[in-house]
Amino acid sequence: DANRQISEYRFKLSKAEQDITTLEQNIGRLEGQVARYKNAAENAEKVEDELKAEKRKLQRELRTALDKIEEMEMTNSHLMKRLEKMKANRTALLSQQ
Question: Could you list the residue ranges forming a coiled coil in this record (predicted)?
Fold first, then answer.
């Protein structure tokens, strides 16, 4: 009976050692996954920061371009009014002759 118990305990010990080995392998695999996910997250954050900076730059450029468009439209309007006045003056001068 003692030999049977010893044999049973040896089997349980062997099984426990196999389980420990399997768990250690799983730990190694999971640690590798964690490292990869951490690197991916860091890279994603870096890309996000770069995209935010690019967005701010493009928004500044857009505001500048819109300001220039508004200024040019005002200048164009002013020049169109001057042209109309000049045409009116020319027509008036021609009609006086």
Answer: 6-89
Distance CA 31, CA 60 (A): 43
Question: How many domains, the chain?
Answer: 1
Mind listing the pLDDT tens digit for each residue in 26-83?
A: 999 999 999 999 999 999 999 999 999 999 999 999 999 999 999 999 999 999 999 9
pLDDT digits (tens, 9 = 90+) for 16-36: 999 999 999 999 999 999 999
Structure pTM? Answer: 0.61
* DSSP one-letter string for 15-57: HHHHHHHHHHHHHHHHHHHHHHHHHHHHHHHHHHHHHHHHHHH
**Residues in the chain, total:** 97
- How far is residue 10's CA from residue 36's CA, in Å, rounded to a whole number? 39
In a domain, 90, yes or no: no
